[in-house]
Amino acid sequence: MEHHDAAFWDAEYASGALGERAFDWLFDFAELGEARWRALLGPAGGRVAVVGCGHASLSAAVAALGYDTVSMDSSATVIAAMRAAHPALAWEACLDAVLCYADASAADACVASYARALRPGGRLVVFACAREHGGADNDGYGGGAPRALALVETRFRDVAVEELAASRSIAPTYDDVRPTHYAQIVARAPADPTEAPPPPPAAPPPREPHIDDYDAYYSGALTDGPPDPHDAFCSWAALAPKFAAAVAPLCARPRVLEVGHGLSDVGAGLAAVADYCGVDAVPACVDLQRSRFPDLRLAVADARELGAADGFLARAWGEPHADVIFDKGTFDALFLYADPDRAVRAYLRGARRLLAARRGVLVVVGCARTDGILQGTGAPRLRGFLDAGGWRVDAQEEILSDVGAGERTFDWIVAAPPPD
């Protein structure tokens, strides 16, 4: 069963993973405010269809403003539950999610159905995440807004887009997924129903993650304060035994460079068993991590330009050479860049140079075999780059996350660079 198809959502709600708690994806009614909703939906009394309604708190709030509201969801389980919770609302048994369906044509069919359902001059309102991650293979944390916009523009001429800052994770069940922005897309159906659809739009230029956005996120400028420390994917407790086995052939206390340390506790765990240095591309993140762990050696450096860390590593170790490069999620981030092939190859070249002199290894925890947000992004694609580049993969196994939501799995990969 593919993630994000109708059967997946029904199973999630039926299992209780989603059904036991009521929440709104991305943000709730109050977070955007009544004035914005009224501006988006037009005069009270109009008909509003809420598609992919989930727990329907948004539907109830819209109905309370005086709109004739119909709520729809592909999950019969959640519809049955919400009929009982909101008996006054009308029901029938979402674009971001549809983008991840196994059938790629489903998203286009979805937008086409919206165009048919709207009265002349009616509005389609889409909230999609995330503007700064344009990966084509993912909904939510990558690919939502760029792909949604492209689809909407094939059916509508009058389209407006606005960025909205995110203030929390996308949902309680995916608390480690915290985009910095969403896109609000508003499209008007033509007043003349005989008007021809617009010509296919030119492909938009790909969007890279913006370091300034990440810096604003880590500094707290986008929310009420800096984000809480958190482990993405797996905790150090889950990874420590595997790490010990992977580095045992190298030396008693290996030199370890963590690339993309974030606000995880993994760096402190690595420092307890290794000669540790850490880098991250985001200055505000490095500052926060230094305040948490003042004894850790940390510096600002981009994974694509590891040569910028040479001076930092030489001061720490006497030479810019490592026994281990440790990566938990950084490759996944690079796969969301405008030119992922170039970004990943640059990272691997830098890693090879740092590891070659001491015959070190690259250790990666990557998304994801069965993760619902970054479906199939990291590990399978990374293995292709490693094989093509002549890296020797000594270990690859699926591991179960011990943080975040549900039974999410990731790949543990240990690889040695090709000989010079």
From TrEMBL:
Bias-annotated ranges (Pro residues): 195-206
Keywords: Methyltransferase, Transferase
InterPro entries membership: Lys/N-term_MeTrsfase_sf, SAM-dependent_MTases_sf
Keyword S-adenosyl-L-methionine: no
Provenance organism: Aureococcus anophagefferens
Listed name of the protein: Methyltransferase
Superkingdom, taxonomy of origin: Eukaryota
Family: Belongs to the methyltransferase superfamily.
GO biological process: one example: methylation
Gene3D superfamilies for this protein: Vaccinia Virus protein VP39
GO molecular function (one): methyltransferase activity
Chain spans, region Disordered: 190-210
